[in-house]
Amino acid sequence: MRGxxxxxxxxxxxxxxxxxxDKIWAARIRxxxxxxxxxxxxxxxxxxxxxxxxxxQGLYADGWAVRRMFWMLPGSVKAIRIEGxxxxxxxxxxxxxxxxxxxxxxxxSVRPGIGDFSARLELPHAIEAPVLRFDAAVAVAPSDIGASxxxxxLAWRMTAIRSED
Length: 165
Description:
32% of the residues lie in helices and 35% in strands. The chain is α+β, with helices and mostly antiparallel strands and 165 residues long.
């Protein structure tokens, strides 16, 4: 999993690994300290797993992306089309740029400008089952500038990501 995500502790490490170990540790703690301590450990592990699972992709259900977003595409990919929206409600978004890394290899960057955008990025060679990592230069919480009550740090709004020949 580390090879695909280029993360030291990818989401699967937390979700599957910690899920396994919390059961083992809880059983041992239950035998020594009682069920209250074991139940607290399980609750803490569950909270870490749930948080990691919820935020691991970096994409909210309404299409907004955070500063670092991950996306997977099936099959062999030679080029990627990114479609989205760069909001104009914060002056910082005028400096926005999105850097794309594919399976740990730099694939280029896009400077979207304000408004809707569509960009095509060519890959140096076809890649099987690519893991895309988008790093945005700017992310702003609308609540920090009085644009809305939304306190999420938003970078850009994703409309579509697809492979192209």
